[in-house]
Write a structure and sequence with these properties.
Blueprint: E1 27-30, E2 36-39, E3 44-47, H1 56-61, H2 68-78, E4 91-93, H3 99-102, H4 105-112, E5 115-118, H5 120-128, E6 136-138, E7 145-147, E8 150-156, E9 188-194, E10 199-203, E11 220-224, H6 233-247, E12 251-255, H7 278-292, E13 295-297, E14 304-305
Helix pairs in contact: 2-4, 6-7
Length: about 300
């Protein structure tokens, strides 16, 4: 089979960028890859917090480290950077520990006063960045933890195949480091509950553990789709069944489709065909969503959105 060149045109899916805008204090803001800010105006939690987005050349041939300027710019824009008078965060939650998820998490925690929450691999990234033990929380799967108005439950998941850097991080990662140091670690399905009654599933990677979400419920699914478009269609359909259908979500917002080697001060674009095919993902998921009367969306970067409002 001849490999496609280039990348999908995100503009072809422009109609999907229609998540309802937030009209009150509660919002979810998409920040690229699997980074999401859940905020009710008083308490806030963030998944990943990956803002550095080093170039492909540096990732392939050099070492990577958090970019303080890019992280500071993003946090200031969000009003969260303590160093610039921001109100901070309650928690930072890496969905797994590849560099494009966890590399900035400890720095974000340091600059916002947040606790870094995750598995032992995430804890070792935090330790390597100098976070103290009181700012690191190693979770127990299935046991809810509460931060402000948010309750989080971590369920074991899997990374989408192929996992280029599998395994657990057993020692502190001190940046700069090779991307191979950021092994996948514990991959999570994170259930988010808010005191308003809003419930969400955050599936950071397009992998799953069969049956892991059975009996759980979430109104909205933030569904990671990185590498999903190069899987066979049976896998894509099973992924939907094991996540969206399993929790009974009526609205789905797709994440981890953007080219994370491109900085956030430039318009988002899709990952290249060499690593993913967003067009295939959208075609198959749109068919499933239509058949099951589930609303399917792409999120708009930096925009405060509330997928719990409006008709599905």
């Amino acid at each position: 089979m001849r490999m496609k060149l280039g990348r999908p045109d995100v503009a072809a899916h422009a109609a999907r960028f229609d998540v309802p805008p937030a009209v009150g204090d509660f919002s979810v803001t998409f920040l690229g890859v699997s980074s999401l800010l859940f905020d009710d105006g008083e308490s806030a939690v963030m998944t990943d917090g990956f803002f550095s987005r080093p170039s492909l050349l540096k990732v392939a041939f050099g070492k990577v480290a958090p970019d303080s300027a890019r992280i500071g710019s993003a946090l200031t824009r969000l009003g969260l950077d303590h160093e610039n008078g921001g109100r901070g965060l309650d928690a930072v939650v890496p969905v797994h520990t590849h560099f494009d998820h966890v590399m900035d998490s400890a720095t974000v925690a340091q600059r916002t006063g947040a606790v870094l929450i995750g598995g032992e691999s995430a804890a070792n990234v935090g330790r390597g960045a100098g976070l103290t033990d009181d700012r690191i929380h190693v979770v127990t799967p299935h046991e809810p933890v509460s931060y402000g108005a948010f309750t989080l439950t971590f369920l074991e998941s899997e990374h989408c195949p192929p996992d280029r850097f599998p395994g657990i991080i057993t020692d502190p990662v001190v940046p700069p480091a090779k991307v191979a140091a950021y092994k996948c670690g514990e991959a999570w399905s994170v259930l988010v509950e808010h005191t308003s009654g809003r419930t969400a599933l955050v599936q950071g990677s397009a992998g799953y553990v069969p049956g892991a979400l059975d009996g759980r419920r979430a109104d909205v699914a933030y569904l990671g789709v990185g590498q999903l478009g190069v899987q066979d269609e049976d896998y894509i359909r099973t992924y939907w069944t094991q996540t969206v259908q399993a929790v009974g979500a009526r609205r789905v917002v797709l994440t981890h489709w953007d080219d994370f080697f491109r900085p956030l001060d430039q318009p988002l674009r899709a990952l290249p065909f060499a690593g993913d095919d967003l067009d295939v993902t959208m075609r198959v998921l749109a068919e499933l969503a239509d058949d099951q009367q589930v609303a399917l969306h792409l999120p708009t970067i930096w925009r405060r959105e509330d997928p719990w409002v409006g008709p599905t």
